[in-house]
Model the fold of this input.
Amino acid sequence: MTTTTALRRHARYGPPDHYLSPPSAGMCLSVFALIERGSEVLVGVPKRHERWTSEWLLAWHFYEKEELEEALLERRLPSTYLWEGEDPKAALRRIMNDQLHIRKFKAAGPRVLSYYSPSDWYPGNSHWDIAMVYSVGVSEPVKKLPWWKQLGFVEKSKLRTSQFGWNSDFVKDLGIAK
Done:
């Protein structure tokens, strides 16, 4: 969804004496690792594990039980929210080193994608997501770690947007799912 002129304002947030307030349904800044191998892409299904809610996806703390159970069935790219003030490259290093245990990698980008969509949690309001996606090359093998139910390279032609959580436009825009 694109911003209409009725919603047009600069994205400059902070104390109200000098800044605007953030979007009424919030905003998220996330970093994703897009690791491709030929016609395959690395995707995973997360497993219930404390590291997701303490290091990478803190929002899961606020999910209803059913929402979290659904999220734990959906495919996702390796990713994390940015810590406040964190450089996106540092967040990518957290993904690669901590989430995937890959030390040697080469990254290009980021490609920045922006989505503004109606909120499920706050009807009548919209949420803003900014996704920074790095194309990453790896030479070491990818192992499934304890916080992943599944993790591996999958043919892009076999992936469907409905298999992914969060945003079907996102995986379509990246060209990794139909």
